[in-house]
Amino acid sequence: MAGRAHLVSILATAVVLLAVFELVRRRRLLERYALIWLGASVLLLTLAVWQGLLGRVANLVGIYYPPTALFAIALAAIIFLLLHFSLAVSRLTDQTKILAQRLALLEAEVRERRAEPVTGEGEGDGVDVAPQAAESSV
Amino acid sequence: MVGAYPVAMTPRRENLAVVPAYNEEATVGRVLADLREHAPAWDVLVVDDGSTDETARVAAASGAHVVRLPFNLGIGGAVQTGFAYAEAEGYERLVQVDGDGQHAPSEIARLEAGMDADASLDMICGSRFVGPDGSYRPARSRRLGIQIFAFILSRIVPGRITDPTSGFRLYNRRAIRLFARDYPHDYPEVEAVLMLHFHRLRMREVPVRMFARGGGVSSISPGKSVYYMVKVLLAIFVGLLRARPVVVPGQDHAVRAQSSI
């Protein structure tokens, strides 16, 4: 029974490692994220193959059935990965927000400049023209 | 109209009213008309937060500057666009006037009077609950939420806070600079009070009258209010633990000391 679990865990982790490798090869996965996946799968594969190490780790944390330790470590790796992605999404959200704001402000400026008659070309002039325009329409 | 402010002689601009609007075509025209009538000294910037209706067209037809966000960012992102604009254009003061008609432009003068009375104040917040006009009665669940926030904030910041969720606020240049760099994403008002405090900026509440919404849909539906509570409470407590800038109060570069988020 333990032998079969051993085999399955080696197979499973090997498949993950290969899948990540293939995704990077096809440029579908950014190296930045691939590194973490590669690290996690190499770690799991090492533990799956090297039963002695897994046994020792299991013993250390008080798990009697070593393959369970493998799953526990895999779970920890997944949680770490998810947290990492939440960070990435948060950063992207923030950056997207700033981009949207800058885009909107630039668009408004371009629109205003195009619509405006050729009155104030100078930089200093341009500053003065807008508020007057706004007030004249009041 | 220009009157007291000879435009050619002031390289900096004075007053900017920021009107965040998300699908407010029914009310934004009225708000802009009121602004023209009651606050003629204020330039008006409408931030259309990715509306799917005619909000932007109505606003532009009223003669306001209109900035259209490419998609909905939420009230925080929309108002921050106004801060960014005000900072870039060199405005000295910014007032937020919601596009739903809740905030009465005729009350802006009260906010201004509050800031004029004490030059060390960086933000004046219009409160519905202080003063003789404190007759505003929100729904019970909402009032409870407001009271909880008010209670917590009043323990943290100096002075009493009665209306922490009010968005009817007047900001000076320092506050504009702070919030142009960093403003909370959604439901920003409560957190902004904390940020202000941690950056050693000062605020005060003044009584204002507010109206019930003139139309459209509030950004806070009953279903979301629990999420709102939890999110803002989290923001408060995380904010308390965040590294604080060490600056001398009143110093001009207070705003730049910030590094977190």
Short description:
The complex is a heterodimer of chains A (about 140) and B (about 260). Chain A is mainly α.
Spell out the blueprint of helices and strands.
The complex is a heterodimer of chains A (138) and B (261).
Chain A: H1 2-25, H2 31-49, H3 51-61, H4 66-115, H5 123-136
Helix pairs in contact in A: 1-2, 2-4, 3-4
Chain B: E1 13-21, H1 28-38, E2 43-48, H2 55-61, E3 65-68, H3 75-89, E4 91-96, H4 108-117, E5 123-127, H5 140-156, E6 169-171, H6 173-181, H7 188-198, E7 203-207, H8 222-241
Helix pairs in contact in B: 3-6, 5-8, 7-8
Structure description:
- The complex is a heterodimer of chains A (138) and B (261).
- Chain A has 138 residues and is mainly α.
- Chain A has helices spanning 2-25, 31-49, 51-61, 66-115, 123-136.
- The longest helix of chain A has 50 residues, at 66-115.
- The radius of gyration of chain A is 29 Å and the shape is elongated.
- Chain B is of the alpha/beta class.
- In chain B, α2 (55-61) links the parallel β2 and β3.
- In chain B, α3 crosses α6 (173-181) and α5 runs parallel beside α8.
- The chains are: A mainly alpha (138), B alpha/beta (261).
Report the sheet-strand fraction of chain B. 5-15%
Give the termini distance of chain B in whole angstroms: 43 Å
Measured on Cα atoms, how large is the radius of gyration of chain B? Answer: 17 Å
Main β sheet profile of chain B: 7 strands, mixed
Q: What Rg of chain A do the Cα atoms give?
A: 29 Å
Structural features:
heterodimer, A: 138 residues, mainly alpha, 5 helices, disordered C terminus, B: 261 residues, alpha/beta, seven-stranded mixed beta sheet, 7 strands, 38% helix, 15% strand, disordered N terminus
